[in-house]
Amino acid sequence: MDDVKTAQNGSNEVMYSVRNISYRYPDGTHALSDINLEVKKGEFIGLLGANGSGKTTLLRAMDRLLKGVDGSVYLDGVDIRTLSPKEIYKKVGLVFQNPDDQLFAPTLFEDVAFGPTNMGFTSKEVNERVMSALNEVELTGLEKKSVHNLSFGQRKRACIAGLLAMGHEMLLLDEPTAGLDPMGEYKMMGLLQKLNREKQVTIVMATHSVDLVPVFLDRLYILSRGKITRGGAPEDVFNAPEDMANIKLRLPHIAELIYKLKHEDKLDFGRIPLTIGEARREILKSLEISLKRG
To answer: Does 41 map to a domain?
Structure first.
């Protein structure tokens, strides 16, 4: 993967604000502890953490699917506790990790049409929204197919289509690449980037795939044991491999290679790159310096 990521298109307008969110499971275990983060309109943000770090719980708290959450969550400046589920789901939708937990209608068309139909759109409007959403996720032509006969990756995209058909401005995605092969992962991330860059859909994605993060995301939060340990641009977050190991994560493969070349083989690198394109430039620069010294 080369330098696929383009310039950040987010505005300064805060769409989602999470303030001092904490949550305990019924057995008393702390799932989230004093979480604070902001999501600006048009951003593509990642929640990175090992299994059990609190990523899914945080997404559910942001979508108001959990009761007994301490703290506040604001959508466009309004506390979501004062909003009805319908008011929230007009703007924000959550895609579960397992698409089979979300798909239920006999055919793809019927499943994607369920949301806009219940929002009161006319048959013509529903049809237009469904076909447009299927086109966005590259499932056109499969609308009469049973959802159970779709591939795993297609079912994941069908879940996204169902939210797009409702006109959601923001997607909360729980491990959207889980269970996909490498090509499927890359295709899914390309689709999400397209929705974000071209359609201005704000995206918050929970993931443990460190190699995908630096290529596609604008900003990153790392979760460990229900707490945010650091946040910022990927190049700022991935600068301490020791810290990553402490939270059961690793650097992206490219960054790990360059880090070892720099610190173990004493090659001269000005920065730790995160993508193939950046690594190529740093290696050529290092070779040029070595040749001049030689």
So the answer is: no
* Helical H segments across 172-275, by residue range: 182-199, 213-216, 234-237, 241-246, 253-263
Q: How far apart are the first and last CA of the chain?
A: 32
How many of the other CB atoms lie within 10 Å of CB of 83? 18
Cα 56 to Cα 288: distance, rounded to the nearest angstrom: 46
- Range of the structural domain that residue 278 is part of: 252-294
Burial track 67-76 (b if 16+ CB lie within 10 A, e otherwise): eebeeebbbb
The span from the CA of 199 to the CA of 159, in Å, is 17
Any domain includes 124: no
Closest CA to 95 of 214, 220, 230, 195: 195
CA distance 39 to 125: 30
Is 97 a member of any domain?
Answer: no
What's the total number of domains in the chain?
1
Instruction: Quote the longest CA-to-CA distance of the chain.
Output: 74
Q: What is this structure's pTM?
A: 0.82
Residue 100: inside a domain, yes or no? no
Written as one string, the DSSP assignment of 152-176 is HHHHHHHHHHHHHTTT-SEEEEEST
Q: What is the pLDDT of residue 240?
A: 63
Number of alpha helices (DSSP H) and beta strands (DSSP E) in the chain: 11, 10
DSSP code, position 107: B
pLDDT single digits (tens) 203-224: 999 988 887 777 788 899 999 8
